[in-house]
Amino acid sequence: MREGGATRKLLAMAIAGALSGPGGVFCAEGPEPCVLWHRQPAETWTSGLPLGNSRLGAVMIGHVWRETMPLCEAGLAARTPTGHRWLFQRETSPGELRLHWLGITNQQPSEYRRQLDLDTGLARLRYQFGHVTFTREVFVSHPDQVMAVMMGADQQQQLFLTIGLHSDATSTLRLVNTNELLLTGEARAAGADRPARFAIRLVAQNQGGKILAATNHLRVEGATELVLLLAAVTATPNEDVGIPVEEPSLLTARQIRQAAAQPYYLLRARHIAEHQKLFRFPNPVPTVASPSRLSLDERLAAAAAGADDPGLARLAAQYRRYLILAGHRPGTLPEGDFAPPKTEPPTVNAFELADPLRAAIFPRGKP
Predict the structure, then answer these.
(1) Which pLDDT belongs to residue 34?
(2) Higher local confidence (pLDDT), 248 or 292
(3) Which of 41-50, 93-102, 234-243 has the lowest mean pLDDT?
(4) Number of helical H runs and strand E runs in the chain
(5) HSE on the CB side for 24, CA within 13 Å?
(6) What is the DSSP string of 169-207?
(7) How far apart are CA 278 and CA 120, in angstroms?
(8) Please, what's the b/e burial string for 276-300 (b: 16 or more CB within 10 A of its CB; e: otherwise)?
(9) pTM here?
(10) Is residue 235 a contact partner of residue 196, using CB atoms and an 8 Å limit?
(11) Rounded CA gap, 60 and 66, in Å?
């Protein structure tokens, strides 16, 4: 089964699992509680790993040597004719983070594994080139309002890559410091009377090696560890979703400054604590056990062949809860129908029509 098909099928199960409700069954405690994992890279957006804090969202897609993370920001979400807000549409995404690894484009990794831990809201990637194991971890923090990316290797000075920000909207990219990028511009949400100003700010923090500033990107050479902090804000005044009216570039500067003053492990711990407070409500301790040694694609293929896998349905129900939490928290997004209206422009693809929860929360279409 193709990986994108696996994700679509799980999402269909997630929608069908709506009857379980917010207090439904939980995934297992143990080695892999509430984990979706794959043995293949994400070729398209529909097979990517979604992350969000209800205001800022991202999807991890791409190969190990070239990764793209389309960003979404609630200020650019358009309202439907019924007044609901259709969140994070691809057409109005403010931009994306691009990682291009140097020197490995002709190699194939081994021991590849990418996963999304629903219980912690952490996406992870792990693979090997030769005798070196590389790791990446990504989350979008609600307490600190930034996306954090941690990259590392089990040997010294193995990280060589370029880091860039890109937008299809009218925008300007500039280097603020040797380790900081700022992308500012204007984007118009569908149905909006005027465009909204936005800003995306990124800071890189390295352990070992060096960071060099190029014309339109940062270049990392020989780092052992690398942390990226990204903030994105629009200036659209929408009180119902808590969108700030403050100048976007100033607000992103403050968000980055506050986040950068904390060590990565503390940002991570604050994110997990806040995420689990909501995801585990009302049951603080998961009770259903059956972690699987099979990837999501393998489990779905086995289930289609008649294998009994009750944990798969439970996982789908938890995926639904995760997606709703990623796109809705009290005080940030309006309650109501997450599904897009049936009368949408022809750019809506079959995947979105079949899986309205995913379409309502994250950008549409391919990268």
Answers:
(1) 84
(2) 248
(3) 234-243
(4) 7, 18
(5) 19
(6) SEEEEEEEETTEEEEEEEE--TT-SS-EEEEEEEEEEEE
(7) 11
(8) eebbeeeeeebebeeebeebbbbbb
(9) 0.81
(10) yes
(11) 11
pLDDT in tens, 5-63: 555 555 445 444 433 333 334 455 444 468 888 888 888 777 888 899 888 889 898 88
CA 105/CA 99 separation, integer angstroms = 13
CA distance 164 to 180: 10
pLDDT of 160 reads 96
- What are the structural domains, with CATH classification, of the chain? 3-361 (2.70.98.50)
Q: What is the pLDDT of residues 307-330, one digit of tens each?
A: 887 778 778 888 888 888 887 776
- Which is it for strands 196-207 and 66-73: parallel, antiparallel or unpaired? unpaired
For 111, the token pair is 């021991």
What does DSSP assign to residue 23? T
Q: Select from 270, 282, 289 the least CA-distant residue to 34.
A: 289
